[in-house]
TrEMBL record:
Name of a matching Pfam family: PK_C
Species the sequence originates in: Camelina sativa (False flax)
Segments forming domain Pyruvate kinase C-terminal: 33-156
InterPro entries per UniProt: Pyr_Knase (IPR001697), Pyrv_Knase_C (IPR015795), Pyrv_Knase_C_sf (IPR036918)
This protein's name: Pyruvate kinase, cytosolic isozyme-like
Length: 167
């Protein structure tokens, strides 16, 4: 099955497919969908190795997948951590569900964020989460040193598309 899928995808013209999808999408796009489409266009024009999307509910990464990038989409699911009392923290059950749901979309590689990502609104922890995702991608052979990566995430309430280079 894997061999058949790889063979079929080798014949897809992603540029043409991306243009056709953009032609049939109703305008105006929502701001987040516009960023998702831009991330795919940017990845295509840079020949990026992957697109990294930090998400809590999965909606943004699903929009990125809608535009059919030719590269893998790392869906970094950032769990919402809540404090239950002075000594205990709990992680939302929906984070695992969001990661599993990503498996049904073409091109999405779900990754659960860990460690400092519990404070995902913090700029430093967001950067650490992205670095961790890139390290995961390197280990899985998705990217290598010198490759470009397109990252889509929120920081201080604003959605951001960034170009990063793998070190």
């Amino acid at each position: 099955m894997s061999r058949i899928c790889k063979e079929a995808e080798a014949f897809l013209d992603y540029d043409t497919m991306h243009k056709k999808i953009q032609e049939i999408v109703s305008l105006p796009l929502s701001p987040i969908e516009s960023l998702a489409a831009s991330a795919v266009s940017t990845a295509r024009s840079l020949c990026a190795a992957a697109i990294v999307v930090l998400t809590k509910g999965g909606y943004t990464v699903e929009l990125v997948a809608k535009y059919r990038p030719s590269v893998p989409i790392l869906s970094v699911v950032v769990p919402e951590i809540t404090r239950t009392d002075d000594f205990e923290w709990s992680c939302s059950e929906s984070a695992a569900h969001v990661a599993r749901r990503g498996l049904i979309y073409r091109g999405i590689v779900p990754v659960m964020a860990t460690g400092a990502s519990a404070r995902s609104s913090n700029k430093d922890s967001t950067e650490e989460t992205i670095r961790s995702a890139i390290e995961f991608a390197k280990k899985k052979g998705i990217c290598k040193t010198g490759d470009s990566i397109v990252a889509l995430h929120k920081i201080d309430g604003s959605s951001v598309v960034k170009i990063l280079y793998v070190e």
